[in-house]
């Protein structure tokens, strides 16, 4: 696709997924990030990062936890003025273990800025185990290429 014909929110999402720590450049000050593990925490507030700085801190922590190896291989992005969806595979390496789990990021925009983001991993428990340094020994249910 011709880059000039691309919706501006698609361009923003491409930049964010190329470097997750840049999310703050495209976020409204009051954005809310709904973490992938939100279904497994008792305190609903613990499943969210509220505010641009909290969202940036969350993304930086994810990158740090993987020793800087976190890569979001984007397969497809669609967006309009209001919403965006990104499909791909989350990949990382840690202590000799490899992670490859499909994801779908859902985004809400207002005036060209991100106001909400929902992280969705195909297998959240596998991602959580990997990030905690205790990779699951049962088969991963994601895409492992």
Automatic annotation (TrEMBL):
A Pfam match: SnoaL_2
Organism: Polyangium mundeleinium
Lineage of the species this protein comes from: Bacteria, Pseudomonadati, Myxococcota, Polyangia, Polyangiales
Domain SnoaL-like residue range list: 19-117
Lineage: superkingdom: Bacteria
InterPro entries registered for this protein in UniProt: NTF2-like_dom_sf, SnoaL-like
Descriptive protein name: Nuclear transport factor 2 family protein
């Amino acid at each position: 696709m011709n880059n000039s014909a691309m919706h501006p929110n698609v361009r923003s999402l491409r930049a964010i997924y190329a470097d997750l720590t840049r999310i703050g450049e495209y976020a409204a000050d009051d954005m809310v990030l709904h973490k992938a593990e939100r279904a497994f925490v008792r305190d609903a507030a613990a499943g969210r990062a509220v505010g641009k700085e909290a969202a940036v801190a969350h993304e930086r922590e994810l990158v740090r936890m993987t020793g800087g190896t976190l890569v979001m291989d984007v397969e497809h992005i669609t967006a309009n003025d209001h919403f965006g969806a990104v499909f791909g595979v989350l990949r990382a390496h840690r202590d000799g273990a490899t992670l490859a789990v499909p994801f779908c990021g859902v985004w809400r925009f207002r005036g060209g800025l991100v106001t909400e983001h929902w992280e969705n991993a195909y297998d959240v428990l596998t991602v959580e185990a990997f990030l905690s340094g205790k990779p699951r020994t049962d088969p991963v249910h994601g895409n492992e290429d």
